[in-house]
Every structure is written in structure tokens, then in C-alpha cells.
Amino acid sequence: MIVKSSKWCRALAGGVAVAVMTSAVPAAAQGRTPITVAAQPLAAALKEIAGKSGVDILFSPDAVRGLQSRPVRSAGNVRQAVQAMIAGTPLEVVEGPNGGLVVRARALARLPQKRTDAVPVATDVADDVGSDIIVTATKRSERLSEVAGPVAAISGDLLQRTQSRRLEDYATKIPGVNFISSGEGTTQLIIRGITSGATQMSSTVAVYIDDTPYNSSTVFAGAATGIPDLDPSDIERVEVLKGPQGTLYGADALGGVLKFVTKTPDSTALSGRIQAGGVFVDGGGSGYNASAALNVPLVKDRLAVRVSGFSRLDPGFIDDPLRHATNINDAKVYGGRVALWWKPADNLTIRASALLQNLDADNPAAVDVLTPGLKPSAGDLNQHRYFDGPKRYRYRVYNGTATLDLGQVSLVSSTSYATFRETRTEDAPTLDSQLPGFLGARVSQPVSDNKFTQELRLQSDDTARLEWRIGGFYTHETSKQTQAIDLVLLPSLQPFRNYARISVPDRFTEYAVFADVTYHFTPRFDITIGGRFSHNSQDSHEQGFLQGPSPIDAPLHTADDSATWLFNPRFKLSTSTMIYARASSAYRPGGPTTIVPGEGAATSFGPDRLYDYEIGLKGSYFDRRLTIDISAFHIDWHDIQLTENYYSLVLITNGGRARSDGVEASLTLAPVKGLSITAAGSYTDAHLTEDTPGAGAANGDRIPGTPRWNYSLEGSYDWSLGGGWSGTIGGSYRHVGDRLSDFTLNGINHLPAPRFHLGSYDVVDLRAGLGFHGWSLTAYVKNVGDARGILALAPRCPEPWSAFLARSHQNCWCFFSRRGQSGPKSD
């Protein structure tokens, strides 16, 4: 645990590109005022002295649990006071980082100082051997190596070093994680094979930006694919929680949680950073990336603001010879963020932020291919369309979080409001095939979504033998999706006639209560038990008309209740090795679906539920130069929400069951200073265990888009060149195994249609750079072998089909950055 002076608290995520910690006044130097502290629980006493003195004190909750401090009267300095407090205990106090103190068990005296049980900043082992990562996966600050579950964390600094600006740049480096994508802004994250394919309408992974649940809870607002790619320079870290997280994170966390943790303003130092870079694609277009951030302390130790902005142009590489157009799939992404940190009282902290991100793309990265071999039909990296398929996305996220320290307990309130706007236009190939040659069909799909959430948590201190937490959650969401099909004259694209128009306004409300307790039987063994109860209600009103049938006017109401649970024992075999077991559940809410006139189809679907059972081991050895993380899991998925096709309409129904079994492992080796090597891999066997005729799926069929094997290898080396210069080199290799396309039905006889193999692919990235007094210059080559990975496959009638490609082409970056700071410097 980190016991922070007010100065340290703002230093946790300070700086612009890397965490910047202020240098506290050394404990031994603070001897002018005698220190007096009453006898009390040791954890509380350490907090009190840190608050009074401004000295940072680090300790492990396990080390002080159940211990009482001795009274301190007129101690000459902070170190003497702490030594008096812990007299007669198996603890000692030593000097820590930045002039602070570390309270630890005497048995740890032989270990390097950096191996304390808490460090204040998320740092990659590649950057600093012996450091650790602090995560908030359990909604408490905790060392990554001590979280009793499968959690991966990537620091924002590492994302910048590797130029990982989009989810696809780093997702498959995490064991058990994959994705399906049809282009910029339409990426579906898959964890442990929990997906029904590219046509899935609501997400199986909950997306959070800090404490804000981002993705929609309904099937009407593009929830399955609406994942923003935040600017890495404004991210402290990305956390991926694998396995169901229904107890803490509620709806949609079937496969897990993707959490973006943004940087906190620093109230101790003025700092800033600028970055700029250029990119060109071999055989394609060129683009750029630029970002800037400024951190301003307004009142030292009390108030600070951070402002950042970014813009990038991702170059295209797809051509359309029919329209004599080149590089048609480029995309512009731009946005910014304002964050405020305020400490109006010693026991009250308020954090507020506003984030916006816009995405503009004219066409997806789709190539026309012929089945079953998936060979290009219009030439390499070509497609044939009558018109562009533009999409415009607008993300807005506002959050205010207040934390009130009441001594042995704390109260946390998080209030959020998020909006999403989408406008997308594309052709309708199935309808095109039924029209005369002078007509084409164009589909417009505007979507709007507004989501308000409020969460309130009351939780105990994490140093007690019995830790507990209770909370409540409320969300109210309104959305509207419209689908309009217009016939246009070719090639002029002049409007000819409205063919169909359906609009579905929707209102979703959820109430939930949750609680968990952790009991520490010994300093080495504890068990966490948790539960959550949720009530959801949803109202939709489908209106519009289809060509032929009478107009549609169908108000619908649905409601359901869901309960989730968690059982999570943990045992520390030693100070460096831990094993855990985890049994948990999660759910995804049901709701109304599309009305199919005259077919007698269901008008609603129920929640699907998932149950996970797993064991894992985490360890660090040789002064943290070697770390390992291994887990094995078994997942049962019931009442799967699947899409079924009724002619040109898609509706949601509940299918049968599925099972996912797998093993995940990662290993990091840092044999010498500056050198780090990470290997990771996973095996996932995800398949149906019941027939689902309406979706064209049978017992034993593999889950779409899920490879059995994923593995990666990454290495980096940093060294000093002398004279203030430094050098860095790095590279990575990742393998994504073969996958199967979606479950589909034949459009004529409604029998299961053939599925196609999406071949495996391998990607190699290289980078090298120089640094000099805050400046850095780095060159990148991504996908050295120009691999062509198909991320998704969409039918077009008649052929060809659309194959959506990864950014699998040579991609060269030249990138520079400059950061500056005034005030206290970091080590």
C-alpha cells in the first residue's frame, strides 16, 4: 500500500508521457517540529504521520494487518517516529524512493529497495527492472502481481514507445485476447472466445474509461464495436480483466473488461509534452500523428489541471479501379481531454474530466474476394463500389469522481455522462442483385446514444483482516437507431425512391446493488466472496415501413433480473509466488428486437449468462528479473444471444450453449539493466454444445473469429550512449491462428451456409531511436513481411464477398517528441 502525503498523491500520474513523481523532503531532514501520534492501528498511524509531515510512506497491507502502533511523543523526525511506532513488531523502516520511507518485514531486508510491496507508478519491467505495476482492476489500488485473477496491464509509456495507437496494435499481444474489425471505429474485442461473430449486436466486453462505463447496454447503439482508440500520451495504462466480471462491473462483462486509465493532473510541477510524426505505407498513402499536453498546478498540493489534444491521419492502402480512386480507406482521428484534480480538504479528493474523440473515414479496409479460397477478385488490395461508404463517429465522455476518506472507511462517488453519435452509409449488395442495372441501393444508418451512470461505493480500509465493500449502481440510457434504404440512379447517384425506413428509439434503465468481502485468515491466505443483483427495464418503439408490407408501429417493453457472484481464494506460497482459484459469473441484459411483419417471430430476447472456473499462478524470481503468469479456465455460456436473418432483416434470439476451455501464459525476463524480453501465448477451444438452427449453427461448431492459438514475443534494449544521449531498439512478433467466419444461413432456402477459414497470420514490427535531454527521435517499421490478415468476412450477393484486412502492410514511422518540466524532478 502507498501512504501518500498530499504531494505524492498528485505525483502518481504526473507528467505528460511518463509518470512524474515529485521529490518529497527527506524524512531525516524534517526535524524542526516534534512529532506526537497516539496509539492506534498501525496502518492508521502511518497514514496520520504521512499526512502531517508530507513524507511518503510505503507498506504492505499484509505486513501491518492486525498490528497496533506504539504511542509516539515528541519524536525528532519522521523516521524516529515510525521506528518508535513499530518497536516490538517484526517490521523495520528503511529509506524509500524520492526521500520517502518503506515499512517492511525484516525478512525482506536482503531484497533491493525497489522490491517494496507497493510502488506508486505503473511501469513496465522493460523500463525499470524490479518495479511493479499498480492497477485498479478490483476498484482498489493493488499490485498487478498480487491481483487474484487474470489481469494484463500495458502502460501508456509502452504504448508510445511501440507506437501502438489503435487497439489492433496491441490487443493480440495479450494472451486470450483477439478482435474482429471491419475498419476504423468498428472493432469488436474478444476475450477467451466469448463472441457470436462479426454480426454480434451488443458487446461481451465491458469498456471503461476510468470509472465511466462506456459502451451501450442495448443492441440498438452499436455497442459491440464502439471502442474508442484513446491517445496513448494521455493514458496511464490499459487494463484488461479476463473472465466474467459481473460482480464489480455489471452488465456485458461476460468475457471481461477493457479499462482505459487516464493520466491524473499533477499539482506539484508544471510540465508539458509535444509529439509529432509522419507515416507512409508501402504501396499506399501517407499520414501523420501529432499530440500535445500541458499540466498546470494551480494551487500546490490542492488544485491542478491537465489539457491535451491529438490528431492523426491513418493512411489508406485500398484502391477502387472502378472509380479511379486510390487509398480510399484512410481515416482521420482527432480529439482532446481536459482533467481537473482538486483536494478541497485533507480527506476529500475530486477528479473531473471531459473527453472528446472524433473519427472520420470514407471507406473500410475491405478487399473483394471469391469464396471459398478468399482470393482477390478485383486485383490486389482492390474493391469495386458505386460510391463511398463513409462513417463519422463522435465520442464524448464526462466524469466526476469524489473520494471521501472517513478514516477506517472511504466513500467513492462516480457520476458520468457519455454520448455517441454515428452516421454511416454503405451499399446494399443483396438488394443490388435484385435491381435493374441502372439502379443501386444505398443504406444510411445514423445512431445516437446518451448514457448517464451513477455509482456509489462504501468500502473499508484494505489493511483490516476483514475487508468489505458495498455499493449501488444506476444507469439511464436513451438511444435511437435509424436504417434508411434509398434507391439511386447509377452512375449519377441521384435519388430515385425511398425503399425502406425503420427507426427504433429505445430507453434502457438499470438498478444494481453489489457487495464483496475479503477475509484474511493469515497473511498468506484469504478468500473473497461477492455478489450483485441487477434489475433492467427497456422500452423501444419500432416505427417505419418496408417495401411491400404495411407500415410498422410496434411499442415493446421488456424487463429482467440477474444475479452474479464471485468466489476467489488466494494463497501465497512465498513472498514471490501466489496461486489462486476463481469461480464467477456474468450476464448480458435481454431486450426487444426487430419486428418481422407477418413472420410470427419473437419480439424480444432474454439475458445470456456465463459461468467461469479457473486457477492461476503468479510469480517473480531473481529480484524480479523473471516474472510468470499462468492461468487455465473452463467457461460455460448459456442462452447465447445470436442474430437470425429473416430475409433482409436481422433479429436477436437466444440460442443454445457454448463452452470455452483454455490456457494462458506470459513470461517476462529482464536479465540485465535495460534489456527486457516478454513471451506470451494462449490456447482457446471455444465451441457450441447445442444446435442453434435459426443461426445456422450446430453442436460442435467453433465460435467465429476465435483462433485456437495466439502467441507473441517482444524485446527491447535501452542503453546510455554518454554525453546525455541514449539509444533504444526493439521489436515484436505475434502470431494469430486460423479462425472461422460467422454462422450464416443461406438466403434462399434458410439452411446453414458454408463457413470459411480465415487463415493465420504473423506480424513483425521493428523500432529504433535516440534520446537527448528530453528529446527523442524514433523510426518504426510495422509488419515487415507485409502479412495479409483477414479480420472479418462479410457476404455480398452475388459474389464477391468483402474481406476486411488488418493494417497488414509495411508501415514506416518517423516520430519525435519533446517533454519538459519545471519544479521537482523525478528520479
Tell me what you see in this structure.
The chain is mainly β. It has eight helices and 48 strands. The chain has a 23-stranded antiparallel beta sheet that branches. A five-stranded mixed beta sheet has the order 9-14-15-12-13. A hairpin with a 2-residue loop joins strand 12 and strand 13. Helix 2 runs antiparallel to helix 4. The longest helix is centred in the N-terminal third of the chain and has 12 residues. 50% of the residues are buried. The N terminus is likely disordered.
Q: Topology of this structure?
A:
Layout: E1 2-3, H1 6-11, E2 35-37, H2 42-53, E3 57-59, H3 61-64, E4 72-75, H4 78-85, E5 91-95, E6 101-105, E7 134-135, E8 142-143, E9 151-155, H5 156-161, H6 167-170, E10 177-181, E11 187-191, E12 205-209, E13 212-213, E14 235-242, H7 246-249, E15 256-262, E16 270-281, E17 286-299, E18 303-314, E19 331-345, E20 348-361, E21 366-370, E22 375-376, E23 391-405, E24 409-427, H8 429-432, E25 439-444, E26 447-460, E27 466-489, E28 495-522, E29 525-545, E30 552-572, E31 577-588, E32 591-592, E33 604-605, E34 608-621, E35 626-638, E36 641-646, E37 649-654, E38 658-669, E39 675-688, E40 709-722, E41 725-736, E42 739-740, E43 757-758, E44 761-772, E45 775-782, E46 790-794, E47 801-805, E48 811-822
Parallel strand pairs: 3-6, 12-15
Antiparallel strand pairs: 1-3, 2-4, 5-6, 7-8, 9-14, 10-11, 12-13, 14-15, 16-17, 16-48, 17-18, 18-19, 19-20, 20-23, 21-22, 21-47, 23-24, 24-25, 24-26, 25-27, 26-27, 27-28, 28-29, 29-30, 30-31, 31-34, 32-33, 34-35, 35-38, 36-37, 38-39, 39-40, 40-41, 41-44, 42-43, 44-45, 45-48, 46-47
Helix pairs in contact: 2-4
